[in-house]
Amino acid sequence: MTEQRVVIGVDSSTQSTKALAVDIDTGAVLGEGRAPHTVSTGAGRESDPEQWWRAFEEAAVRTGWAERAAAVSIAGQQHGLVTLDAAGAPVRPALLWNDVRSAPQAAELRAALGPAELVHRTGSLPTAAFTAPKWAWLRANEPAAADRVAAVRLPHDFLTERLTGEAVTDRGDASGTGWWGPDGYDKDVLDRIGLDPALLPQVLAPGAPAGAVRPGTALREGTPVAAGTGDNMAAALGLGLRPGQPVLSLGTSGTVYAVGRTRPVDPSGTVAGFADALGGWLPLACTLNCTLAVDRFAALLGRGREEVEDGGSAVVLPYLDGERTPDLPAASGLVHGLRHDTTPGQLLQAAYDGAAHALLTALDDVLRAGGEDPAGDEPLLLIGGGARGRAWQRTVLRLSGRAVRVPDAQELVALGAAAQAAALLTGEPADAVARRWRTAEGPVLEPVPRDTDALERIGDTLRRAGALQGAPAEDR
Ligand SMILES: Nc1ncnc2c1ncn2[C@@H]1O[C@H](COP(=O)(O)OP(=O)(O)O)[C@@H](O)[C@H]1O
Ligand SMILES: O=C(CO)[C@@H](O)[C@H](O)COP(=O)(O)O
């Protein structure tokens, strides 16, 4: 009998860490572990990297395979600024992707280097979400803390380094910093924000190993560790995505993306021109308000998530955390179009519609940015915590006009990390591993006519709400 080989894939996302133990040959999930994270509320969004590390070890142990896994890989939420001192301890909590306090620094960077130049260099127009403005924010607001920083990491790099002792990252996650381009770290951007490149990790070539598990962790010493990547890049691997297959992920963030063959360039800033984990591209649009915002509306209305009703003319812009797409960091939630006969269920449906609007109107641009035809008939792959919600599924069908496929496999980010770990051992590309595991299979929901009235109503409200939502005068 041949020995069963199992890898562990990890998703260190905003709300929790999820770990899966996966059989390399069959893709069967043999064990699962989960541990929650704490995110600060109020003005900023911060988490303690030490809690991520504890959650990682706990989730990995809960899979039941921590001491037997043949390889490991860690994917993580993108963009977060992790600052470490000379001993490798966090200088302060990490500034997360959905912390909009860095919006002024993003605007300064855009003004200093120019949108076209920045997009040409780094692939994206930085918003508050990107790591570069976060570093600039730290220098401006907490200079003493910035002075103590001996290493700057992203969430997944921090965990990989704790596990292996190696200061490495991958091109996918690096592409969300705002200081990386295809030729490496961008000296002009780093100079502008006052960040010494010596503080940054080495960007590994696609498929290269990060190292091996060091002594003293919950995992077996010497276990090979893959490079890991950003969570959206990992989900693309986990679905075995081919160019032109669009994905919509419904989690704390809403994201819409597709693998592209050409380097994406969108000076409007709607589509970020991320790199994928393999050597290609991952044009992506991201919102700050997705499942949590809709759940908050349900709670305010005293209704369950699925208690929605059709009809009515209410519009909800559920920008409870400010917003990134559209780029309105100072925005807040807005309800418009209420009438005497508006029901709570209609208002809740309007919150779903408002959360899905920017993602589904960006979908065509995402496909175009990657050199793909938006008129293609590939079903939209629906993933993330919200994908199993009936109300979410119906909203996406109505507002996309596309067929939607909901993969049976869950935790596609962790599965993508597992595929990366397996690829280290088998020599296959990680996306081919996931295709062999058939992770993208699942029921296809038939398309319905696109609800263009609802989309137009939301678009119109958004345009007219510009001043209230803090849009710059030239965009109103
Ligand atoms: N059946 C469901 N319907 C709608 N939303 C759901 C459902 N199950 C989970 N969620 C939402 O999914 C979110 C978690 O999704 P997940 O993708 O794990 O988030 P993240 O990766 O950002 O931590 C939670 O905000 C929760 O409200
Ligand atoms: O900022 C982005 C993408 O650019 C987010 O998608 C983060 O990567 C967080 O992801 P989740 O924790 O919501 O999955």
Automatic annotation (TrEMBL):
<keyword id="KW-0547">Nucleotide-binding</keyword>
<dbReference type="GO" id="GO:0004856">
    <property type="term" value="F:D-xylulokinase activity"/>
</dbReference>
<keyword id="KW-0808">Transferase</keyword>
<dbReference type="InterPro" id="IPR050406">
    <property type="entry name" value="FGGY_Carb_Kinase"/>
</dbReference>
<keyword id="KW-0859">Xylose metabolism</keyword>
<keyword id="KW-0067">ATP-binding</keyword>
<dbReference type="InterPro" id="IPR043129">
    <property type="entry name" value="ATPase_NBD"/>
</dbReference>
<dbReference type="Pfam" id="PF02782">
    <property type="entry name" value="FGGY_C"/>
</dbReference>
<keyword id="KW-0119">Carbohydrate metabolism</keyword>
<dbReference type="InterPro" id="IPR000577">
    <property type="entry name" value="Carb_kinase_FGGY"/>
</dbReference>
<comment type="similarity">
    <text>Belongs to the FGGY kinase family.</text>
</comment>
<dbReference type="InterPro" id="IPR018485">
    <property type="entry name" value="FGGY_C"/>
</dbReference>
<feature type="domain" description="Carbohydrate kinase FGGY C-terminal">
    <location>
        <begin position="305"/>
        <end position="423"/>
    </location>
</feature>
<dbReference type="GO" id="GO:0005524">
    <property type="term" value="F:ATP binding"/>
</dbReference>
<keyword id="KW-0418">Kinase</keyword>
<dbReference type="InterPro" id="IPR006000">
    <property type="entry name" value="Xylulokinase"/>
</dbReference>
<dbReference type="InterPro" id="IPR018484">
    <property type="entry name" value="FGGY_N"/>
</dbReference>
<dbReference type="Pfam" id="PF00370">
    <property type="entry name" value="FGGY_N"/>
</dbReference>
<dbReference type="GO" id="GO:0042732">
    <property type="term" value="P:D-xylose metabolic process"/>
</dbReference>
<dbReference type="GO" id="GO:0005997">
    <property type="term" value="P:xylulose metabolic process"/>
</dbReference>
<protein>
    <recommendedName>
        <fullName>Xylulose kinase</fullName>
        <ecNumber>2.7.1.17</ecNumber>
    </recommendedName>
</protein>
<feature type="domain" description="Carbohydrate kinase FGGY N-terminal">
    <location>
        <begin position="7"/>
        <end position="238"/>
    </location>
</feature>
<dbReference type="InterPro" id="IPR018483">
    <property type="entry name" value="Carb_kinase_FGGY_CS"/>
</dbReference>
